[in-house]
Amino acid sequence: MSKKPVVAVVGRPNVGKSTFVNRLVGSRESIVDDMPGVTRDRLYFDVEWSNSSFTVIDTGGIIPGMEDEIMLSIASQVEIASEQADAIIFLADGREGLTPVDEDIANMLRKGQKPVFLTVNKIDTPEKAGLINEFYSLGMGEPHPVSAMHGTGGMGDLLDEIIKVLPGYKEEDAKSPIKVAVAGRPNVGKSSLINAFLGEERVIVSEVSGTTRDAINTGLKVDGTEYILVDTAGIRKKAKVGYGVEMFSVDRAIKAIRNADVVLMMINAKDGVTDQDKKIGNTIIDAGKAVVLLVNKWDIVENKKSNTVNEFTRKIKQDAPHLDFAPILFISAKTGQRVNKIFQSVQEVREFSTKEIATSLLNRVISEATALNPPPSQKGKRLKIYYSTQAGVVPPTFILFVNDKKLFMTSYVRYIENKLREAFGFFGTPIRIIIREKGEKA
Question: Residue 190: is it exposed, middle or buried by C-beta count within 10 angstroms (0-12/13-18/19+)?
Answer without folding.
Answer: buried
